[in-house]
Amino acid sequence: MVKVKPRVLMPKRNPIERIRDFNEVTLGYSEKEALEEASRCLQCPNKPCVYGCPVGIDIPRFIKFIKERKYEEAYKLIKSCCPIPAITGRVCPQEKQCEKLCTLIRLGEPIAIGALERFVADWAQEQGIFIEPKSNVSRNGEIAIVGSGPAGIVVASDLARLGYNVTLFEALHEPGGVLVYGIPEFRLPKRIVRKEISYLIELGINIELGVLIGKTISIYDLLDEFDAVFIGAGAGHPRFLEIPGENLNYIYTANEFLTRINLMKAYLFPKYDTPIYRGRYVAVIGGGNTAMDAARSALRLGAEKVYVVYRRTRKEMPAREDEIINAEEEGVEFVFLVQPVEFIGSGEGSVSKIKLMKMILGELDETGRPKPIPTNETIELQVDSVINAIGFNPNPIIPLTTPEIKTDRKGRIIVDKEGRTTMLNVYAGGDIVIGEGTVIEAMGWGRIVAQTIHRDISTKK
């Protein structure tokens, strides 16, 4: 077997130091480290990694540019497919997408594609590299984008670069969607998000903040003014456990908890005195990236003990392996094969214990994972705060106020394979269509729908 060089590990801060603040944990490659990692790429002629990239970045080519120290060319290549590479380089699950298909995985470890993307994007930001954003073509067509998360960003930027007039509507007071309210500073610094979002302004996109489509303005109102409407409102509607005691004080949904920390800046206490309960003994329910974000945030708010409660085993956790390892390094304690069945109060209206049903794993379910089966044996965990991170449903406001837009039984907007909804001139993509997905999956949908809108408008004209 051919011997290959080991993967260059991304440097990161010491756990004892990093749990005291919300500064970024991973430090990114130095130029030397990036060149060393790029040198491992085999430059496969069939480019299998590209098939794993939802936005179709020519990965071997941008890595070749890094090898040749042509960082600006690498950046321009990535940027032509991905408008926010400094973000995707940090938060995308490359190990489940492009890196999963890397030829080197059969010989050892795959190329660290995400780390190299981040290196190039950070280098470009530091150098102040400017890419001429606007198309020379000016097209007749007014496009409304609902939601400024990953899907909306791609649709807006792709159509603006094609020459359309684009207006992006965001319900919150800052653009970015889940990138600003859902992902903590230590994983995705907000200065990075703001810098990447500024590209939309350079493209001439008009961003309207504090506008809740379906309440402030209806889809019907938008269709009176715009030729096409794209809905990328995400999946920010929390799921509940529906067990006794769920209404006790200091039981948060992960959405509320992380929004208070990220968007309302509780992480900058005492500069911002955001109302949030800082529990000493915190339980986080769930096994995904959101659960890891919530658990690690609770530690940084001063918790003495943080438990992650999950009904399967570590092997089945949907969170990224890197994020699980980071949580373990920082002292998060995992309690596997348990399912909450009751929250017990202190007598003063606050949560004090969780009753947990022990589980065993049975046959595979529809997700391809073994199904948890109750054993009828319970244990109790002493806590003073709980964060529910079992998942989210699509935002229901637009379908509820626009009956022409049909949804499935899970509340996801029904679209054809090109992103057309059941309402004429209305399109959708991202989490509101697929349910909870990744940043890059939502962006992949955005790429598809932008081309659909372009074709449909061009045909009409």
Secondary structure tally: strands: 15
How many structural domains does the protein architecture include?
A: 3
Helix content: 25-40%
- Runs in which pLDDT lies below 50 for 5 or more consecutive residues are none
What is the overall shape?
Answer: globular
Strand content: 15-25%
**CATH homologous superfamily placement of the largest domain:** FAD/NAD(P)-binding domain
Rounded mean pLDDT score:
92
- Supply Rg: 23 Å
Kindly report the CATH topology of the largest domain. FAD/NAD(P)-binding domain
Keywords:
34% helix, single chain, FAD/NAD(P)-binding domain, 3 domains, globular, 17 helices, alpha/beta, Fumarate Reductase Iron-sulfur Protein, Chain B, domain 2, five-stranded parallel beta sheet, 15 strands, 461 residues
Description of the molecule:
Strand 1, helix 8 and strand 2 form a beta-alpha-beta unit. This protein has 461 residues and is α/β, with parallel strands linked by helices. The strands form four sheets. Strands 3-2-1-4-15 form a five-stranded parallel beta sheet, sandwiched between helices. Strands 6-13-7-8-9 form a five-stranded parallel beta sheet. A three-stranded antiparallel beta sheet has the order 10-11-12, with no helix packed on it. The chain has three domains: 113 residues, Alpha-helical ferredoxin (Fumarate Reductase Iron-sulfur Protein, Chain B, domain 2, Orthogonal Bundle); 163 residues, FAD/NAD(P)-binding domain, CATH 3.50.50; 151 residues, FAD/NAD(P)-binding domain (3-Layer(bba) Sandwich), CATH 3.50.50. The chain is globular. Helix 2 crosses helix 4 and helix 13 runs parallel beside helix 14.
